[in-house]
Amino acid sequence: MPFLILLLAVLALIGLISWAKVHPFLAFLLVSLGVGLALGLPTAKLLGAVSQGLGETLGSVLIVIVLGAMLGKIVAESGAAQQIAAALISAFGTRYIQWTLMVVGFIIGIPLFYNVGFVLMIPLIFSVVYKYKLPAVFVGLPMLAALSVMHGFLPPHPSPTALVAQFHADLGLTFCYGLLIAIPAIILAGPVYAHTLRNIVAVPLAGFVADTRPESALPGRLNSFLSSLLPVLLLAPVLGLQAVLPAGNAAAPVLTFLAEPVVAMLLSVGVATITLGTRQGKSLAAVMDAYSASVKDVALILLIIGGAGAFKQVLVASGISGAIAAGLLDTGVPPLLLGWLIAAAIRVSLGSATIAGLTAAGVMLPTMAQSHANPNLMVLSIGAGSLLLSHFNDAGFWLFKEYFNLSVRDTLRSWTVMETIVSVVGLAGVLLLDWLLPLM
Fold first, then answer.
1. Where would a tag sit more exposed on the chain, N or C end, judged by fewer CB atoms within 10 A?
2. What residue ranges are annotated as transmembrane (predicted)?
3. pLDDT score of 425
4. Any idea where the domains of the chain sit in the sequence?
């Protein structure tokens, strides 16, 4: 009976979001209430679980996501992203243009959310296409593969950040493991696979080729790189010191404080406000206006995350979580593979990677205590599953199709297969790490 109720709940989510076009936040709330009532939860306990799940989930991720959005906004508006791209193309030339744009997507994808990065980088891709007479999909796919992997795998992006909080994973370790998996996934789905797509004829609309800023109006190259990558540059040495220094050392309290993602992100935003804001001639008020706009960009994402947290907490409060955990473990499917399969099934049904990841987390969370699966790898496994087989119900599919002016067939052949390669390679990387880590 619990499994039937859970199945009906997931089908209800799919129907409400995909067919009835109900906003995901409302869909999560409606389904959470329905599940609670079906399982006999008293109304007071049910409403308490909804409030608790929503509050706890948002409380654990809201600051990081909002600060990440602010950093991405200032990186985009200051011209730092354009400077990074120009510097790399200048350094490596057009012979390795695919690899250059892939690296640009990798770097830009750390602070920028996918949709922002896509819109920001598309003019650069098309400028290269028109200037050097190169096939558009062949040139552009590696960069977009990098953006997609960053979005699905790595904090501070919304879904991975929320999954880290739900599974009580270590954000720094998840980021490091994610990088190890992301690099081969990007290479195989980007430059390697794109070589098979040279014959796709795409004529991007010339209107998407934006006027670039003059170099004199851009922040310096070193400033652009350092300001954009500051969260990574702050966390990497701190995590390294924590790993090599003995427990209880005198620096431990300071390192623990600096290792908090909120602290790293807040310091990064503070520095970028000066280096990419006021020192570039912007008033502090103008920078704050940009930050306000960035919060609006992620407001709906935060609501979806909160709704998913409410759904998860209702499953826990109802006691169905224990039955789910026991039943899933009895299937004999390894938990990491199971998390990937559940996220992949929801992704194919709904289209949204964020919703797929958060819903799969709610289903898999009860199994964690009994399975002893690595929570950092579970975040990455679900993140990989949430990228599988992007097709007609995914906004990213249509964004790629329309911007590149492709047929549906060629979009499936390029974008959909690229996302699937990323997902499968991601799963393989997770399983390989799961095998290697106990041996180290």
1. C
2. 30-50, 57-76, 96-122, 134-154, 174-194, 225-245, 257-277, 298-325, 337-365, 377-400, 420-437
3. 94
4. 2-439
